[in-house]
Amino acid sequence: MELRQAEPTLAAGRAEAALAGGIAAGLERLIGLFRSLSLPDGLSLTAAATLATLERSGPRRLTALAVQEGVTQPAMTQLIARLQDSGLVSREADTQDGRVVQVRLTGQGQEMLARRRAIRAERLAAVLARISPEDQEALAAALPAIDALASAAH
Amino acid sequence: MELRQAEPTLAAGRAEAALAGGIAAGLERLIGLFRSLSLPDGLSLTAAATLATLERSGPRRLTALAVQEGVTQPAMTQLIARLQDSGLVSREADTQDGRVVQVRLTGQGQEMLARRRAIRAERLAAVLARISPEDQEALAAALPAIDALASAAH
DNA sequence: TATTGTTATACTCTATAACTATA
DNA sequence: TATAGTTATAGAGTATAACAATA
């Protein structure tokens, strides 16, 4: 009984391990692509990710943002201060709990995100034009899976 | 004649633009995944990417590395100094040109890369186990395309 | 003169530790 | 006391500008 249950589990584990190695390598190379696509608009990687999180999830507490982006609470305090100075986010007091700060994306912040994405998509289109139609189709087919993978992370 | 040639070109351009938008969004979320998978071994993103480049391409000149990783020459000088202090790379004089510095990955550097990848693949496997078999297959099928995309970047 | 790389200096971003305010 | 966030300080990593050495 141990054997009959163990075999398929192990086989699946091995297949996943091999796939994981491949994905990890691909991910490593995609970092280079992503960096070559990024723009000199003065937004750090953490800053851009934080804005994207706020857009996707709506207003969030400062501590929640720090956890989500993997930085310390003081680092997030300062990042939010910078983003507020730039007009990209606003801070609001919580009516329930006087200690809590709610952070909200402003319209200006949304515009900034949209602008960044448009430029990046444009540059990416130029790269896509240089790979084969078959590879383009494979990427298009994998988009839902990529989304699922990113969502499964937490 | 203009019309017959123009139509498929425009159609292809539109399809690529739509795909580019999707890929750009996926890439943005994958970066988050990658960061959540990365480890506190004191290696910056640029440092890790530089080591990976040296492993993939063999010894390279300092300027070539700076261009490849998208940092300035002084920044690469200092990064290489740090990596050399840690024993991960070595510097060698060029016999042809006295101004040139060749940077080479050491055995210790290779071990560091291998260790990082093993840990990341392990964590990624845990995430992969949480998505559907169909999504796993789509990702596996897209691996060559991902590689082609990363290669097409320069 | 042009190219390769280094040094000097300043700025951004981050972490740890100590602190204030609210619960 | 515990929790949410801030302030203080120090360190890593980067860029620009000025420099030295070689071609």
Structure description:
Two copies of one chain form a homodimer. Chain A is mainly alpha-helical. Chain A has two domains: 1-37; 42-151, Winged helix-like DNA-binding domain superfamily/Winged helix DNA-binding domain (Arc Repressor Mutant, subunit A). Chain A is 72% helix and 8% strand. The first copy, chain A, has six helices and three strands; from the N terminus they run ααβααββαα. In chain A, strands 1-3-2 form a three-stranded antiparallel sheet. In chain A, a hairpin with a 7-residue loop joins β2 (89-93) and β3 (101-105). The two termini of chain A are 33 Å apart. At the A-B interface, α1, α2, α5 and α6 of A face α1, α2, α5 and α6 of B. Chain B binds a DNA duplex (23 and 23 nucleotides) through residues 44, 46-47, 61-63, 71-79, 82, 97-101.
* Number of individual domains of chain A: 2
Q: Within the largest sheet of chain A, what's the order of strands?
A: 1-3-2
- Number of E-state strands of chain A: 3
Radius of gyration of chain A: 20 Å
Named CATH architecture of the largest domain in chain A? Orthogonal Bundle
Shape of chain A: globular
* CATH superfamily caption of the largest domain in chain A: Winged helix-like DNA-binding domain superfamily/Winged helix DNA-binding domain
Largest interface: A-B, 57 and 61 residues
Which CATH C-level class of the largest domain in chain A is it? Mainly Alpha
| Distance, first to last CA of chain A | 33 Å
Percent strand of chain A equals: 5-15%
Mean pLDDT of chain A: 86
Q: What structural class results from the helix and strand content of chain A?
A: mainly alpha
| CATH topology title of the largest domain in chain A | Arc Repressor Mutant, subunit A
Query: What oligomerization state is this entry in?
Result: homodimer
Largest sheet of chain A: 3 strands, antiparallel
Helix segment count of chain A? 6
